[in-house]
Protein 1
Amino acid sequence: MTYASEVVQWIREHFSKPEMLASIFWICVKILIIYLAARLCIKIADKMIAHMMTARENSPLKFDARRTNTIGRLVHNLISYTVNLICILLILGQVGVNLGPLLAGAGVLGLAIGFGAQSLVKDVITGFFIIFEDQFGVGDVIQIDQFKGTVEEIGIRVTRIKSWTGEVHIIPNGNIKQVTNFSTYNSLAVVDVAVSYESDIDRATEVLKETVKSVHENTDNIVKAPEVLGVQMIGNSELKIRIIAECKPNTHADVARLMNAEIKKQLDASGIEIPYPKVVTFVKSEKAGAD
């Protein structure tokens, strides 16, 4: 008897038994149920993710659509991989595979990878939460430790920011402890204008109010009318009048420069003196000759 014949004979002897056929049938039914349950779990999770993303888009706070889609895909992949892994393990258990050594080996392998790639895992987890919590986005001006600049890329492992002088800083996400975002809310431009003691304070205040009103009308970066608060400080040789203006995010420096230039022009045109260091020399004259 050939080997093929022996195999055919073994199959006939085992699969012709009603108990074996019933066992195979129920194993197939269980495998099908496990598979369908896994598909159902993934489908329910996708519905929940879609609902969360829709609620996020309809929120009064406006989020980047691209980032919302990225978060949705990340969460979907995480749930899908987890459910599929559990499904495969359950199916292997149904066909008689001993999962104990397999799980033990996977645990040892995962432990070894965890010890060898702690920083990588930390970077990935931190990057996920940066994206999920919408801490900052591409184009935002942020400061991380001593690095300040515009965000060029947010990755799962690293974040790239470009400083205003052109340098690109690549920062591992796991090293990001504290972030200051200058692009989330409106900024405040603060301008202190020095006038001399000899100047008329009321007249200077009126000139400043007219000037900042004109600046507000001619620029889109100021979101509401600037305020002239009044005398902020009395110095040794000057009085400082403070002006504040609420601006669009991260435009306060440009607005302050524009206001400084216009204020200088209007003060000169109005004859209001801006103090500057002066040296006054007194010459003491003595009578030539004694009585």
Protein 2
Amino acid sequence: MGIFKIFSRDKKEKLDEGLEKTKSSVFSKLSKAVAGKSKVDDEVLDNLEEVLISSDVGVNTTLKIIERIEARVAKDKYLGTDELNRILKEEITGLLDESNSGDATEFTTPADKKPYVIMVVGVNGVGKTTTIGKLAYQFKKAGKSVVLGAADTFRAAAVEQLKIWAQRVDVPIVEQGMNADPASVAFDTLQSAVKRGADVVLIDTAGRLHNKVNLMNELTKIKRVMDKIIPDAPHEVLLVLDGSTGQNAIEQARQFTKATEVTALALTKIDGTAKGGVVIGISDEFKIPVKYIGVGEGMEHLQVFNRHEFVDSLFSND
């Protein structure tokens, strides 16, 4: 299975840098796992299982990967530990293939859906509003016109933060301040986007997981109101997760997928952590495509997730 070299060198370097902490952690554990061994035997597989679980890949996903490698060991009879890297790369890419379709590299939206409406969900503190700002920047850079909707009206800081991003990226924002009805903000945002002939709409929503029933009702109401203006809106429900929280991010994904239908994931703060393996676990466990990955602070550090490039950056021991 070849790795598709489709990222620009600059993007690839940023991805490599962003995954450096995870990569060095995984490699130091891997080298210990195979120390003194020339072939992949039961002990190496046990050690490998420990490496993957401690790298936040998650238990269920780790067991799947180990099973796949066991099947190859049984088939090839003799697999050298020097080949383990390549095999890990192939099997993890294969696993990610099952929940991520296509090999996107650019910020695009379907031509037949204009405006393309993205409702962004996630708990406070995961980088949700920042991700919206960076998405607006990337879509605008790709030649798309963008409108922001400040429907996270539960916190004054969220509305103010989004306004700052709108100014920074120079895109219009629709807001009614704190404590406004989120559905009303969403309604106005879509009306404004249609009037402007916008390409993309990004709607920020509140992330109050401790009161799941309210959250569920609120998101359902926002969706219902949007559908009145643009049938089938939102076209995408993007859940933002903080990759540096590891297993906690998996738990948040579990809670949000119960509260609303999530169709895509964005994982932030991957660069500041050795827990990058969580991308593999979340993608596999929820069968929801990882669409965006944050590998640094800058606006250009939000990348379209490409599974082949991700695995290549993670397991290339150059």
